[in-house]
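#dry-run=false #mode=assembly
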Amino acid sequence: MTSPTSTAALGQRSGVVERVSKPGGEGEWLEVSMGPQHPSTHGVFRMDVVLDGERVVRLKPVFGYLHRNHEKIAEGTTYLGSMPYTDRLDYFCSMTNNWAYALAVEKLAGLHVPERAEYLRVILAELTRLQNHASLCGFLLQDMGAMGTPLMYAFREREKILDLFEAISGARMMCNFMRFGGCRCDAPPGWLDAARRVVDGFPAFLDEFEALLSENEIIMARTQGVGVLPRELAINAGVTGPMLRASGVNYDIRKVDRYGIYDRFEFKIPLGEHGDTYDRYMIRILEMRESVKILQQALRDIPPGPVMDPKAKLRGLRPKPGEAYARIEAPKGELGFYLISDGGPNPYRYRVRPPSFINLTVLEDMCRGHTVADVVVILGSVDIVLGEVDR
Amino acid sequence: MDTLEQIVARARAAVPGAQVTILPNESPSGQHSLLVDAAHALALARWLRDDPDLRLDYCSNVTGVDWPEVERVEKVRVKKVVDGAETEVEETRKVRSGGYLEAVYHLYSMHKRHGPVVLRMRTENRADRVQLPSLTPVWRSAEFQEREIYDLFGIVFEGHPDLRRILMWDEFKDHPMRKDYVEPDDYEWEPTPHDAVLAKARKHFTPTTSSGA
Amino acid sequence: MLGEAILKGLAVTAKNFALSYVSRARLVTIQYPEERQPLPEATRQFPFLVYDGDDPHAGLRCVACQICEKECPPQCIYIVKSKDKKPDHTGKPQFYPAIFDIDLSVCMSCQICVEVCPFDAIKMDTEFELSTTDRFHGLLVHKEQLAKSNAYYHKIHPTEAAAVDARLAAERARADAKAKPAPPTPPQKPAPAPTPA
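#status=ok
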């Protein structure tokens, strides 16, 4: 077995183009580093691809360029102080990151959340899912060369949702809104009506988006049959989220764990048949439609009441020694937080289970045999955010 | 899903010689874990994945934890003979715990929709006997996560297909997430230093009360 | 026919382009800085200190309890307590901050300092056009720059400021009620022992 610190595996040197002989001596393979500065790698992400002509033979993802050692910082910060840092993990979806962390601490400390806070959490999480999936479809199209038009249409809707976030929490992206035992504050008057207007206008946007894209011959030619992920490999590799459901596995944590109050809402789980990039794109469009249904139900049923558990303290939370693992269905997959408490104000061990990081395990399997152009499209459909991959 | 005691009983029958113990978890989450020994971990993992009642086919989270050796003073009530009569006396006792690195696996089942089952493996010490069997041959999702544990904690997973650093660069030394990690001395000026940062600052220059006004 | 969906897509784009001349919903950009987007009331940028009345020193609500300094996650607040005391809004003598600095280049606008302050002394400002040419000292703001009046607070966050004022007025009323001397008792009953103030 190669020693752990040796660089015997290919793809360790950045920016160097090498000629590597195939075992057998025929022909030459080319090693290309699709380096950290690249417009289509969704952040500072590097892939070392070994090519046989245009076809990918090997692919090694290299990351760590955005590693901020969030987990060690959390060991030196109080539980409340780590909440703004969780915004910055998957920076597109700060509300769901906050919820996952709040859920983990509530499990660890045994706190209770009032009903209005649960409804607010569901509303904000589904709004986050809408804007994440819309942006993702936009970015995927941009990677394919559509030069930003679908992206800008998606961003138009995203801006409406970000305005809602700003009105309720004060910030567009780094919301820092959930607390242990509820939400930081209640929605200002008129917010729920504004949210209803945005949600009711969303299906019209989706219809226009689909008219623009879903039957487009270029998109179908570039994504159908590209990057197929077989079902058993997806389960074994720990892939979660829309990528897993595109491969036909019916596993959505909202239905399995029924955390929060998701068991009160009626919504379906779309599943894909082929597991290719087109399925992953269509799953996200269909999930947006289901999220609109959940939002309409939640906005109709939200009860009045407090948004914070009256017994929960804001400062100085010291959970009893123990550990807890809590997970939610974040827009990118299963986001989990594992906390070990030693009775002090700071956690002893704080671990983020990032969906994008684990979904990247199968990138090589999906890209083998495809061309370099397909690699960009497949990576776009995996939906990674480097803030989460590297923490 | 069976209770943990039933799982342990069946595991001991299926993998003879395996040492499986239940570690209780005192928090309200109620997620107790199974401590397994390194020699039988791979066989046990295969059994957990393939057993028709459990079918734990999805390894959700693989974490490393650093437990440096700590000595606690515990008060214990002991029956002793004092002045000819047997009484209960309170004695203080030094208790040593820790001194190992730990790998924690959270397992779920996508087929049966149950879980989690928490597995734990411990190394012998934190210095040189830091090997553990890799469970990547059983669950591929452990591949990147075990690499991360190797990178940040220093546990060497034997049987891992590609064990090298993942988040830090390849030539980096030391393991950042350990409790005794010492940061390199690369202090930069900052206007509002506190606590540990202030201590580092004092080594480089004398910080005035900030606000040059 | 091959290419039909592409033509349909081009029709969508053409519709958006044409309608962007007439419909505000299709043209979503504004000419900043000549036009500015009206921001919601809850928007937050960086903290500032509130003072009541006209005197930024005498009316400063902050009593240098240093809770915000301890709770700030990136530790960007630096406080040095004064040695003497000054009366606060209920008349009780309190310490005040001799030095109160915030490093804006570190502050991440998380609002935790505002949430934990027991005296409603630090609130979030909405000013974001703070660019400066000096990377270090230009972004280190001191007490004099941070202290802004309660009238300014009412202007930027009217609902919140009204709620804070109501709460502080209730506190003042409670403090006044406790300070009033005990009412005279009727002559039949013996005089009660004077209650401590």
